[in-house]
């Protein structure tokens, strides 16, 4: 079977990279006058950008040498230097970001991998208020398969060149020409063969994890959209996630050319590292951190392109931009690789910058903030009044008019992902240090210190004033541990709701493969 036509001939404008819509001599920011959108009803647009796996230790405060775009947004808006996620990995963290609920309330976690429909989401609220709602995800947890597409008029999977229910990842992962051809032939019998081929080519040839294509698409959408409705745009850029493989120019900002080559040879398999299948030296960790910073810098460059697209479309002055990390990462710190099995600072402290609307002072907000606080903040900032979302929300607004700062932030790791049983199935006998991961964890952070508690009775106390979270002081400061333990119980009693039953979504084989590559299976 032969298809002797180009992708450009077969795909509608909506599915083309923006470059195809330009003349050969034009560039994304040098085209004709942008499409006039108008002022609408005076309500601001909202652009919510998640830098997936961006940890605060590398991004807070925003550094012009690593993240110049984020730094300039902070200079023009507000940087929240003590922003914390409520969960250490993607699915529960995004669920909190969308619903304004803690994991104990929304129930999406390793044991129930679905955001249930009885919780209203931020996209649904904006859609009901008349906003145009668009979502682009480059993380396969954040899709309709797990309940995250509700409220979006348009929702795109960034790893696909053409939106399709056929996942072409099996072709990309296949080794050897024969296996790849077999996978292609199998996929061509399902769905539109032209779309399938386009997605295969895109996944094989793309130079990043979808960031450039995402920004291209947003640029084209902004220029072609009609009407004067305000819009809510959500973008997840996954590049900082394992595996770290930034474009070479960005890696070489932090590593020498020889070090980049050495770093790219290192094995990046967090779960295999957890069980002791291989080891990494201090030098190896240093190299991996260099690649990771390269990924952060690359996403920052996409933020700059996104900002220029908003300006070219005449929307910048009417837009509130939020840039946030959903969770952080351990890259050798505390003996961990990735973002599972603990609630240390590196996993929970994330960047948060809001620019536009009332966030224009260039100040640093130094009080505690949780990601779920963005829900009431954005509702207040836009004037969107949605009773269900407002009533369910457990966050508190950080709008400049807010006068009640937080005195604590909380986090939960309800069930590890993958489970210890799954690790045992995959790797066989496990070290005792790994078996202890079979527990839930909850944490509270205050100006007095950090307290973490496990369901197995384990406790860790890190008093304020000590560098890092390396020495448990529970025995030395039992009164402080007891106070924080009581406060943790009081908080949990005020937010916990009946947990959903069942494991949640039935995950497709293709999605399982993608999740395995990200270290979740």
How is this structure best described in words?
By secondary structure, the protein is an alpha/beta fold. The chain has a domain at 43-159 and 209-407: 3-Layer(aba) Sandwich (Alkaline Phosphatase, subunit A). The protein is 36% helix and 15% strand. It contains 21 helices and 15 strands. It has helices at residues 7-10, 56-59, 68-76, 90-99, 103-106, 122-128, 169-173, 177-188, 193-205, 211-224, 248-251, 257-264, 270-274, 282-312, 345-348, 374-382, 387-392, 420-427, 432-435, 478-495, 509-517; strands at 45-51, 78-84, 132-137, 154-157, 231-237, 319-324, 330-331, 337-338, 349-350, 352-355, 363-370, 409-413, 441-446, 449-454, 459-463. The strands form 3 sheets. Strands 1, 2, 3, 4, 5, 6, 9, 10 and 11 form a 9-stranded mixed sheet that branches. A 4-stranded antiparallel sheet has the order 12-13-14-15, covered by helices on one side. Helix 10 (211-224) runs parallel beside helix 14 (282-312) and helix 12 (257-264) packs across helix 14. The chain is globular, with a radius of gyration of 23 Å. It starts with 6 loop residues before the first helix and ends with a helix.
